[in-house]
Amino acid sequence: MAYEGGGDRGKAERFRAAALPYLDDVYTLARYLLRNTADAEDAAQECYLRAFRHFETFRGGPIKPWLLAILRNVCRAEYARRGALTAVVDNLDEAENTSDGLWSEAQSSPETEALQRLNGESMQRLITQLPDAFREALVLREVNDLSYREIADVTGVPVGTVMSRLARARGLLRAAWLAEEKGP
Amino acid sequence: MTCDEAEVMLHALIDDELDAGHAHEVETHAAGCARCAAQLASYRDLRQALRGGNLRHTAPASLRRSIDRAVPSPAATDRRTLLKGFALGSLLSAAAAASVTLVVLREDRDQRILSEAISAHLRSLQADHLTDVLSTDQHTVKPWFNGRIDLAPPVIDLAGQGFTLIGGRLDFIDGKPVAVIVYRRRVHVINLFVTQGVGSSLGGPRMETVQGFNIRRWTDQGLNMLAVSDINREELDEFGTKFEEAARAARAT
Question: Given 3.40.50.1260, 3.30.200.100, 3.30.565.10, 2.30.30.40, which CATH number is that of B106-252?
Fold first, then answer.
């Protein structure tokens, strides 16, 4: 509050310079988490408003994880509002612990070719179909390019959980990918 | 390492998240296990496909404008909009603050390792404790570490490349014992700290300047290497490059 008045302008300028370059990152994560363009835009806007409001609490370091943590909170509020989705979140722990043999499928070189043939649009669709916690970890890693430590901070779980979620996310994605390749 | 462990750890490996020691363990396991090697190759392919797949979305220009309008200087109307937007703010700020603390801590640890390395470097010059074993012979220095520390540091004679080996010693960084190999370039000392699992794994070599000292970090066969000296950046980088070349050559013979 010491910087009320003239300081606000300075704060707004510092915030713009620091945070706006990551709008695409924020919007991208919102798209994958909410699976819907209009909701993603609302969430990104809300994220930036909250981030600006709390900019004093930001103490330096990389700002991208900080923004994505805020965005994630906005999205979770949206999940709660939608109601139906909370059930999916609650079931994650069980889903995480099941082992259904995806890991043990035989490997072959046609698989490699299959992976390479899938286009960006299909990839996005398959990622969107992953369960919440796995989709979130995968997007934070592969699209937002966060480190495990940063993902752990953003999602509020230990680094070991990040690692196992990523392993599971990639296992599921690979299986979905190969199923797609075989065709309906 | 079991296959079950390797199946999860290999993801951290392809994400470059393992420290040098664990990376080495996973690679060693995969080298002797056809199934895990195939998994590793498959997930590397998947990762490459994802990276090449253009999975990012671009925020619409209208969204950018609208945010830009909502975050300006202190007009009363903006304030109202902001407050409305923050009805749910308090829960979040605790979470955001927690995440910020963690991020800061992470930065701190890296900084602490660098600054401890510099302190150790300074101590070695001031307290007449540069070396525990004084020898220009790599075959004397290397075995000296046996039984004193649970790693075998690569000790390499670089006299032909303009860096004289003068000995080795034990030191501590981040509360852990580390092997130090000491070289001299003209009147300048280079302390090469060799650790396992201190600091995170690096992709390639990384140069930094801290408190006026130059630092070059890289990894070698499961070990983290950190060279500190007051020689200039180019010469320290040259030292690291020569060391890596010689280490590779030594392994090839």
Answer: 3.30.200.100
